[in-house]
Amino acid sequence: MTEIHYVRPQILHVTTPLQLVSGAELPSYDLVYETYGELNVDGSNAVLICHALSGDHHVTGFHEGDNKPGWWHDYIGPGKPVDTNEFFVVCSNNLGSCRGSSGPATINPNTGKIYGPDFPIVTCRDWVNSQNSLRQHLGINQWAAVVGGSMGGMQVMQWAIDYPDKLRHALVIAAAPKLSAQNIAFNEVARRAIMTDPEFHGGRFIEAGTTPKGGLALARMLGHLTYLSDDMMGAKFGRELRSESLKYSFDVEFQVESYLRYQGEKFATKQNFDANTYLLMTKALDYFDPAAEFNNDLSAAFAQTQASFLVVSFTSDWRFSPARSREIVRALLDNDHSVSYAEIESEHGHDAFLLPNAHYEGIFRAYMNRIKQEWHA
Q1: Where is the catalytic site (predicted)?
Q2: Same domain for 187 and 300?
């Protein structure tokens, strides 16, 4: 019988003001985080996991009374690619989220009221700076690795650029050096769906006692659609009907329609994701562009990085395509940095980085074993 590993979230309250890229300041903030495994004597086995848009600090294991595992449970834990018998794994909830860290749904200490739309715009750099405060709190001099997929992979790159001596390895999975115009457009449509919902109330829906469920569900439906590949959707749903014949109406008739509506409704109700958080997270994605500070030269942006890189992409991921990962690889090679690249065959689209895949698991495990050997040598 498989042993069940329970974990409890912890809270770091930071009283040192955090200057944000936008020019705003957070006078204090909370970071919710979880840890797994044990930090070794010299602190050389610490791994930071960075989460994606709708992710959180609960990356693996279980909370007591909840049978839902962490979002990367297949890849992190005892005996898994990121082996918590060997590594001390840390994952924090990003600022601006709605899963416990300071964000739009928490109290503004300056007013005693919920932040709502007054919570400032945050960026990948702001997240990394707050995560660095957590690193210092935990007494970790240098991460053995910083790991992330999708938006998490963007944070990994920001770590390597902003704190080059604070990580030895950077694992960038299903990510891109910046969003394409098409991706920014998807995010804008999602935001408009939320902001034009009559229950949004200019972002003060909590005070109004409402939730913009319709707009949030539409935003999630659009986002979810971009995470899947055409081949996977065709194989899973095709043009299958919910009933035996067409009804010639605007009701849900195709199984794929039912699936998307379910995903949207679940996100807006059962998962209770905060609409202001969705706006903030998509804006942070839009703003990520480390090359912009270097005359749009990605190679120059990576010039001072010291970490070794593993970059992973998936063949059917059209949102963050393999071509975007190869841009990262080329920029690193321009600087003669150590980089390994893997392009994984998968029909699951962008979501592939979260799902079981033997080839992906093998590469992930082999690279983490390489890191482990460094301190066992």
Answers
A1: 150 (nucleophile), 317, 350
A2: no
Q: Tell me, yes or no, whether 48 and 129 share the same domain.
A: yes
The reply to whether 88 and 163 lie within a common domain is: yes
5 part of a folded domain? no
The total number of structural domains in the chain stands at 2
User: Which regions of the chain are under pLDDT 70?
Assistant: 1-3, 233, 237-238, 241-242, 245, 253, 375-377
Residue 194 belongs to some domain of the structure:
yes
Query: What pLDDT, on a 0 to 100 scale, did the predictor assign at position 270?
Result: 72
pLDDT 10s digits, 221-256: 898 888 877 777 677 766 776 677 677 777 776 777
**Residue 150 designated active-site:** yes
Q: Do 96 and 231 fall within a single domain?
A: no
pLDDT at residue 370, as a whole number = 96
Residue span of the structural domain in which 296 resides: 10-178+291-375
Kind of pairing, strands 145-149 and 169-173? parallel
Residues pairing with 82 in the sheet: 76
* Residue 303 shares a structural domain with residue 157: yes
> Does 220 show up as a binding residue in the annotation?
yes
Cβ neighbours for 250, distance < 8 A, ≥ 6 positions apart:
none
Determine the pLDDT at residue 2: 53
Burial class, 171, CB count within 10 angstroms (exposed 0-12 / middle 13-18 / buried 19+): buried
Residue 351 is assigned to a ligand binding site: yes
Catalytic (active site) residue 348: no
Contact call for residues 278 and 219 (beta carbons, < 8 A): yes
- What gap in Å lies between CA 216 and CA 294, rounded to an integer? 36
**Is the entire prediction scored with pTM above 0.85?**
yes
Q: What is the pLDDT of residue 237?
A: 67
Instruction: Please list, residue by residue across 9-48, b when 16 or more beta carbons sit within 10 angstroms of its beta carbon and e when fewer do.
Output: bbebebeeebebeeeeebeebbbbbbbbbebeeebbbbbb
* Catalytic site includes residue 197: no
In the listed set 249, 283, 317, which residue is the last one of a domain according to the structure? 283
pLDDT tens digits, 100-140: 999 999 999 989 999 999 999 999 999 999 999 999 999 99
- Selected catalytic residue, list 57, 58, 224, 350: 350
pLDDT digits (tens, 9 = 90+) for 314-347: 999 999 999 999 999 999 999 999 999 999 999 9
Identify the active-site residue in 150, 229, 308, 325. 150
Residue 304 and residue 249 share a domain: no
Are residues 272 and 198 both part of a single domain? Answer: yes
- Residues 76, 131, single domain; the answer is yes
